[in-house]
């Protein structure tokens, strides 16, 4: 430290702030609170020109302390937040929003809803225009909460329906919530952004009331509008919707194709491969192979039996038919340098055999086809399998031996 | 009030004061030509000393406020400060005579009071009664609006535009801009004059009075007491009477938002002394507290150094003749007299002595320590030899602790008080509301602070560090002997250390570069830094000030050698 013996207001508050920061980093909440009390008077001298004004600092720091301090309560938090709201007009809606989140995190849904409604009705000259974004968010979250209410009421009705009761008031309320929710949810998802939860809820509402067209349009927009950021989930939602409604294979495939391009390791790729394998169209089967190979490029799938079995099945089918071996060659070309070490080492052979026989079976089949009968993996596993007198391994051995020339053609 | 003559007309002794400051007989209303020169240090609304435009009345306004002048405010402050000093043990003369007279003289010199009524030069009085055309005659006069915007963006609770509009409505009368009558005028008119009264200048006045009386309080002591809250300075306006309303531009004058700076207070004091045409101050002789011999003794004790070092400090003082009366005594206006900072001087002398005896090159002093330690272990007779290393450890520990505490206090320093100030009536409610919010938040988080007691104001003490020889842990070094670092040569005790290194080969010209020398941590040995740091802490001033003084002393000490050849070697006639 510089051991300065001068001091002015600004400098002393800067120092105070650094003590607060240290205390917070060390999770010493009492100490942080103590120094914060000394920082408070900087509110009386608000340097509006600075990037982070004292009132914003106090809001953020105070919130942090109140969240973590053992003696603080929801009541304290609320009263603090109310004071923060009155401190800065420019930040009013932001504070309201964060307050809402906090209430939600603490399970105080009614209070959160009330808070949102109050905030929605706030008006303050040109600030209302400036804080337009926050206002939109507030409306969106209220829409979400309306959806949640709707959902609860729907469940009540369904229960009652089962019991044979009818409840008109609940039903009316439910429809009311739907209307309120729909309006706000629709608005927010127009703005380019990531609105996964909002989209899902909105689509849920639309589906329930039978407006499938609108739902499809919404999902298409969300997935395909270039103004929106790339979002794998958008495609997942669209796919799921299409599947639910029994849409054509073509549309399902195109939805999942994009997902494959964006997230090759997505779990839906397994379903995708299965769908594509079955297809009569050559192009689709080709794509299926590409898809499943791509999945297994990722470490997360290394020990996934299902994935390996998909690949194994497709490879086996190709080998038997003796058609389109070039497909395998193409896919294997870029992988032959690293897949052996990645998947088919002797070490993994041992481990797979010990831990998961099915896995080792599938992998052995793939290894046998791609690397031939002399590869480490296949040799070890098939040997172990035959030794253990597991029937399928004997069959496997025979199969690979029979089709060994294929390997030669692939690798050549 | 002390006027005891009989009235010419009715022979009664029953005098009162007119608005014009003249005595009049209450019995027969005969007005005399005698004006009073007595300044009642109590603020009394109805007695006006200086002549002002007839337009102004001195009655209380309907809202309970009254008219007051900026200098009256300062007068009150000085009075409070003097009382506080008295409570600290300063003699009462300070308040009743010395400071009072200095202040009166200041008022006279700045023509704020004590006008002869006939002089009539006081046209520069307030535009309240004059038309605003008078204002135009002054060149380059910034408007109140400009003045306000030049300050830091205080109280940004209202947007600038609305604030501006509230001020622009009062173009004629400036009294709305400040609670005091002449607040805006004060700031505007005197901008070019150097000796406009300011808050730091009140401390210059105090120090000047202390120096005149040769009180045992250095400037660093005074400023430390101010920071610790023993002398009114921060928020002293709280003590103004209710009817003296403070707002608007008064804030710029009376509200303090920084600690007083040693250099600034000291320099202003010198300017002030010259401005007031004061004669030579009372002599600082070797029996005065401020004399280097005395102060060195005090600082040696406080720094826990052996008493024997005092011989050496006295020798240095004598050799370079800084103990002489003519050197130490202030002669105002004489630029050639050293601008002597007694505390810094004494501290620097000690540093030089330590360098003489211990070299402080991060090497030799530790060798000496080893020697002392060895000797102390084996031979307990005759008391311990002073062991630099041991001293270093003890002091470092205390110093670090105190420094840490001080740093925390700085971070916790509170600048605002209960009495809230604001720029205008429009801001009033917002400022009050803000204050209420602050208090609420302080309470809320105060409760979460755990059982932390509010920091107690330390008792005012001249000594910040104290060491007692009764401590059995041997942490007091006062009685230790310097035998380990001295040797006898030709009947004289000299230092074993044959070398000396100068802090700087050449002193800078203060006028061109502001300092006599430049202190950078990378350039000097750690032991030197440590010693500088110690005194820097005790005096609460920047290390560079002490370093500067050390350089000056060294150059005086080794003057002959320096003039002769560039080599530096032992100095004192050892």
UniProtKB/TrEMBL annotation, chain A:
Highest taxon of the lineage = Eukaryota
Which is an annotated Pfam family here? TAF1_subA
Q: A GO CC term?
A: RNA polymerase I transcription regulator complex
Q: Please name the GO terms of the biological process aspect recorded for this protein, alphabetically.
A: transcription by RNA polymerase I
The record's section on InterPro entries has:
SL1/TIF-IB_Component, TAF1A
Q: What is this protein called?
A: TAF1A polymerase
Which species is the source of this protein? Alca torda (Razorbill)
TrEMBL record, chain B:
Q: For this UniProt record, give its keywords in alphabetical order, as a comma-separated list.
A: DNA-binding, Metal-binding, Nucleus, Transcription, Transcription regulation, Zinc, Zinc-finger
Rrn7/TAF1B C-terminal cyclin domain location: 258-448
Q: Name one GO cellular component term.
A: RNA polymerase transcription factor SL1 complex
Annotated family? Belongs to the RRN7/TAF1B family.
Q: Which gene encodes it?
A: Taf1b
Where the protein is mainly located, per its record? nucleus
Q: Which organism is it from?
A: Alca torda (Razorbill)
Q: Which GO terms describe its molecular function?
A: RNA polymerase I core promoter sequence-specific DNA binding; zinc ion binding
- Identification of the protein by name: TATA box-binding protein-associated factor RNA polymerase I subunit B
Give start and end of each RRN7-type domain: 2-33
Q: Pfam families from the xrefs?
A: Rrn7_cyclin_C (PF20645), Rrn7_cyclin_N (PF20644), Zn_ribbon_RRN7 (PF11781)
InterPro entries registered for this protein in UniProt: Rrn7_cyclin_C, Rrn7_cyclin_N, TAF1B/Rrn7, TF_Rrn7_Zf
Q: Which residues form the Rrn7/TAF1B N-terminal cyclin domain?
A: 74-241
The record, for PANTHER family, names: TATA BOX-BINDING PROTEIN-ASSOCIATED FACTOR RNA POLYMERASE I SUBUNIT B
What's any GO biological process attached to this entry?
Answer: nucleolar large rRNA transcription by RNA polymerase I
Localization per record: Nucleus, Nucleolus
